[in-house]
Amino acid sequence: MYRCMVQAENKRWKLEILDSSNNDTQQTLDPAVLNSDWSAEERILWADAVIVVYSITDRKSFLAAQHWLHMVRKIKAEVPAPVILLGNKGDLEDFRQVCVTAGAKTATQFACLFSELSAAESAQQVIEAFESLIREAQLHQYYHPKIFARCKRPNIITMTKLIIALFGKSPKVKRRRPFLSL
């Protein structure tokens, strides 16, 4: 889990980014997430917004991105989330295997934002992609507040189990009625 603060729309946003592309990497991810047995479905359900990245120099990564987009739309059907499809490695135009129109057509098919960039050449392009996704997430929360609140509200039973796991069960104590004197 990567955590950072970004400025967008005249507001500071706390981002928690789960990179699900490399489940076996030794990146500095949150141990709770890394060691959990989260399935791809759980990772998608967890997300408020999704970025799907492919390399314009690798057709297989584009096909994998299409698969991820299909999964996101299927899993988030009841509570849709903003999605952006990013074609990376724009600086390697000579090695391009995925044309811009294929990326744009896929984005249209899955009703998501689309952009191509070069993370190696311009951090600003990456920032702009995140900012556009934040704007979409903000609009989504504005237009769907009840759905968003319902999905993010912790289940009471789950919270009880969590509290018991953290603090343990309290021992049974006989409780006396309070003594009342007039």
From TrEMBL:
**Residues in the signal sequence:** none
Would I find Cytoplasm among this entry's keywords?
Answer: no
Known SMART domains for this protein? RAB, RAS
This enzyme's EC code(s): 3.6.5.2
**Pfam families reported in the protein's UniProt record:** Ras
Entry-linked InterPro entries? P-loop_NTPase, Ras-related_GTPase, Small_GTPase
What GO molecular function terms would the record report?
G protein activity; GTP binding
Which UniProt keywords are given for this protein, alphabetically ordered? Hydrolase
Q: Which SUPFAM superfamilies match?
A: P-loop containing nucleoside triphosphate hydrolases
In terms of PROSITE patterns, this protein maps to: RAB, RAS
Q: Which reaction does it catalyse?
A: GTP + H2O = GDP + phosphate + H(+)
Q: Origin, by domain of life? A: Eukaryota
Family, per entry: Belongs to the small GTPase superfamily. Ras family.
Task: List, alphabetically, the PANTHER family matched.
Answer: RAS-LIKE FAMILY MEMBER 11
The protein's name: small monomeric GTPase
Source species of the chain: Ramazzottius varieornatus
The root-end lineage is: Eukaryota, Metazoa, Ecdysozoa, Tardigrada, Eutardigrada
Instruction: Provide the gene name from the record.
Output: RvY_09288
